[in-house]
Amino acid sequence: MRIETVQTVEEIRPEHITDQTVIVIDVLRASSTIVAALSSGFASVIPVQTSEHAYALRAPGVILAGERYCEQIAGFDYNNSPTALQRAKHTGERLVLTTTNGTRAIQKAEKAADILIGCFLNATACITKALSQNCDITLYCAGTRGEFAIEDGLAAGLMVHIAKTISSAVHTCDLSELLEAGYLRLVPVLTERLLASTTGKRLVERQYTEDILFCSQIDFSQIVPFVSEKRILLSSSSYK
Ligand SMILES: O=C(O)[C@H](CS(=O)(=O)O)OP(=O)(O)O
């Protein structure tokens, strides 16, 4: 089984998607927000590209979350904030989510055999689930505004490392190897690296440090969000 890593939203090619299990990784913050929302009681997350599309979906039982330039969108209920959604108590509502990078990556991967949502919070559960699908795996890093994001690369490196521990049949591209080595080198200072990353600095400047601390927790959850008919639903991995 092959694992390949894609560095940014725009770099995905058809061969990364066709017959592949794609894990969309956007640590800061879309993937972490989706894990937090499904943990806190939302029945599903609906990723959309524009705030207009989100407004049009407003209805009873629908909550809107998202950001532009890291800030909450006017008229929305929440920012793209995992800690705000983690604290929120919801039972069965649908969350409509629009973000700069993460929700675009989910749309671009829509023709994959399977799409899973991964980050540090659910790394082991997510890669375990991906390996069980028996397809080659693409670790699709969303990055930030067209650039590689170190936090996504480190989460990809962690997943590569776990995959190799689980299966000796895993082989990877050179970038995946590099990211695994980077993860193993930087894991003792993971939170500091996230705070010092390009997106991390933007979020700290805007008083969202709490989100970064939350997103740097490894294996906080066993939830594995997956995409089905343009919605993101919840499944649990049984790796324990
Ligand atoms: O606000 C976020 O979490 C980021 C904004 S940025 O463009 O990366 O600065 O969006 P996301 O789509 O979650 O990466």
From TrEMBL:
EC number(s) from the headed UniProt entry: 3.1.3.71
Cofactor: Mg(2+)
Gene3D superfamilies documented for this protein: ComB-like
Keyword Hydrolase: yes
First-level EC class: hydrolase
UniProt xrefs under Pfam families: 2-ph_phosp (PF04029)
Keywords: Hydrolase, Magnesium
GO MF annotation terms: 2-phosphosulfolactate phosphatase activity; magnesium ion binding; sulfopyruvate decarboxylase activity
Record's catalysed reaction(s): (2R)-O-phospho-3-sulfolactate + H2O = (2R)-3-sulfolactate + phosphate
Protein family (similarity comment): Belongs to the ComB family.
Protein name as it appears in the record: Probable 2-phosphosulfolactate phosphatase
